[in-house]
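Input.
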Amino acid sequence: MKNKALRFTLFGCVALTLVLTAACGSNNGNNTGESGNKTNDSATTNNAPTDNTSAEKPAEEIDYYKFKEPVDVVFAKSVFDVKVYPEGEDPGNNAVYKMIEQTTNIKPTNKFAVPYENYRERIKLGIASNDLPDIFFAEQADVDQLIKNDMLEDLKPIYDKYATDKTKQIAGYKDGLLFSGAQREDKIYGMPNVSDSLNGSPVVYIRKDWMDKLGAQMPKTFEELIALAKRFAKEDPDGDGKPDTYGLSMNNQLDLKFTALMNAYGAYPKVYVKDADGKLNYGSLNPNMKQGLTMLAELYKEGVIDKEFVTKDMPKSMELVSQGKVGILIGEFFSPLWPLQDVPKNVKGADFVSMPMPGLGGSEYQPNVPINVSGYFVVRKGFAHPEALMVLLNNLAETSYSNLDNAWAKAWSELNKDPKYANASINNWLPVFNDRPDANTNRYNLFTDALKSGTDQNMPADQRVTFQNVKKGKEGDAANWPWYKTFLEGVPNASSYKTIVYNGWFGSATETGKLKGASLLDLENQTFIKIIVGKSPVDSFDDFAKQYNDLGGKQILDEMNAVLATQK
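Output.
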């Protein structure tokens, strides 16, 4: 998967993980090789969660969480670390799979269990040979191919009939936007693998101790934020008498920091934005990009940005932040947990205050935020019990909403308490996984309510350890300040934007995109970096835009709009 590092959800009391594939538990198992059948149509009897509606029998209430009789289901699994399994357990034989069988009557086996770098190749081989698992995770490109080959079940009837309200609350978030990549007209070919909707939403972190030293005020506009960055670079806020501080962090990947700055000018790099007629335009070619690039070129020339940023990827650029040499970090809600947690350790008295990204001239700031769907859980066409996927997702939804009256959620809670699995990351053992898109907003509400009431007894047990960390941080405990800053400041700032701009293209690369997309992206990044560092004038953006289109950009856009026209 591409660029999925540092995109994660904070799970209650689970320690911070810096690299979680965005497919989370969906495609993350561990490896003991292959087990299970090839194409498995094993349970062919009518064993769905029953609602017999014939006139001859009274209707039976559907059990949305458990089959009446055992059902065999073959999954595909990917590997994080097989060593986390205790002795006697493996990806196909473990406590989580046994819990699933006991609570749902679904008997899980694995068609294969491989490292994720091999997972997609196995799915591709399965597509080519028509030998697929019953239920599996697929990235967007594979979903597109599977739909094209007519190899997936339409899940719309199953979703409508068997999905619980909580499952629909998760999958149907943002008025069904999360289904976009697997939806064709009125059919749904996959259930979205969801992560927290706040991932990718910008939050500005500012060195409060530097502001206090300079007598500066919190910026209210984008212009004031940039002016503050200049002061941090020029007025020696660390007091060492050396010109060794920077106003803003930047790196050569032109990631969230760059994107968030361009968004202030109404430009949306690297995503496709729909115009008033519903047609896509490539955001990196928006003429407003020139204003943003002009601003960054000025900051670079004045030393507000590290002159060596062109040689540093994101993790390398964070070294300056950790050393306490950067005054403003455009990050995410979890940035206090990394990289900011090291700053007070390295610089005595260092402190941060956070805020949402401000708009240009005090106008509304409208960020581009990903929909945070890494792919889809799909069911191979012909599998006798496609509703098994919904049974699993229904149970996961109950767990996400901490419903300990639910058998699965209760069993899951007990497994998490078992010392045997304390460091095993057992959520990665699940064959299917989802979290609430509002998971961390919910935690913010839980924690603020507990602070007001003075007790955490009304809080789900799996949230209490994190809450205690938050509480200690709020009370001034140095070791726990990142938890306080993350949940009580980062989360509400990240969720404060009224208008979000989403990428208008949800499909995989078009034919021209497959051939030329990588080279065009490289052209784009190199052009923007050359403008920022002063090697090319800002007006060279116009030449770049023409060159980009001539080299295939326009053809890619035309292909995308043609696809969208067929889906109306």
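Confidence is low (pLDDT under 50) at residues 1-46, 50-59.
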